[in-house]
UniProtKB/TrEMBL annotation:
Signal peptide: none annotated. It comes from the Bacteria. InterPro entries: ArsR-like_HTH, GAF-like_dom_sf, HTH_MetabolicPath_Reg, Tscrpt_reg_IclR_C, Tscrpt_reg_IclR_N, WH-like_DNA-bd_sf, WH_DNA-bd_sf. Residues 68-213 form the IclR-ED domain. This is IclR family transcriptional regulator. Keywords: DNA-binding, Transcription, Transcription regulation. Residues 6-67 form the HTH iclR-type domain.
């Protein structure tokens, strides 16, 4: 710690990071051990975070991330969208299909940015705010592949007809971006995805990831 930093704020942020990394919550004792501070300090940190709805404690006393974090997280979407738009525009124009950036929102995949090509006679209408289960559609499945550590060559996921009859999709996960689970993909009216589309989607996902680092 330096003279310009706050030890209390640092500890509070570390509490949130520790809780975000567990699905079952942590007790005061567990947090105390991980932070290397006494239980009294942890109690004060949790009480303050609870006041802002950033932490909640269940009946068993285990602390978990609170719903207030979701409100903060929603403000990230516009920043992510702005960073991704140049790569999405290039992808949509190059492929001639609707390009999208999709992120995890709870148990669903949420389209946070969509770009439609300008020169095609027809394309799939895919709107910002569209939601679907993570285990359906190329965008969600690409995210799950990264979450499960299953991303291998060629690095993209293909689907057909899972979200819309007659539509095919290709998506690649965002890799190496701390705190963000997402994918970049395209959706098109076709029985199958042309061979060159998958590698192009992987390149676009890499460009977006670079813009977000």
């Amino acid at each position: 710690m330096t003279a310009e930093t706050s030890q209390t704020l640092d500890r509070g942020l570390r509490v949130l990071k520790l809780l975000a990394d567990t699905d079952h919550g942590l007790t005061v004792t567990e947090l105390s051990n991980k932070l290397g501070v006494n239980r009294t300090v942890v109690y004060r940190l949790l009480a303050t975070l609870e006041q802002h709805a950033l932490v909640r404690r269940d009946l068993g006393g285990r602390a978990r991330v609170g719903l207030g974090v979701l409100r903060l997280g929603r403000q990230v979407h516009p920043l992510v969208r702005e960073a991704a738009l140049p790569a999405l525009r290039a992808l949509a124009e190059d492929i001639g299909a609707t390009a999208h950036l999709t992120m995890v929102d709870g148990t669903e995949a949420l389209a946070v940015a969509v770009v439609e090509p300008t020169w095609t006679d027809y394309h799939v209408a895919y709107r910002t705010g569209f939601r679907h289960p993570l285990d359906r559609g190329a965008a969600g499945k690409a995210i799950l592949s990264a979450r499960q550590g299953l991303v291998t060559d060629p690095g993209y996921t293909l689907t057909h007809g899972e979200l819309e009859a007659g539509a095919s999709g290709a998506a690649a996960p965002l890799l190496g971006v701390t705190g963000i689970e997402g994918s970049v993909g395209v959706v098109m009216l076709a029985d199958s995805v042309p061979e060159r589309v998958g590698p192009r989607v992987v390149d676009a996902a890499r460009e977006v990831a670079d813009a977000l680092r």
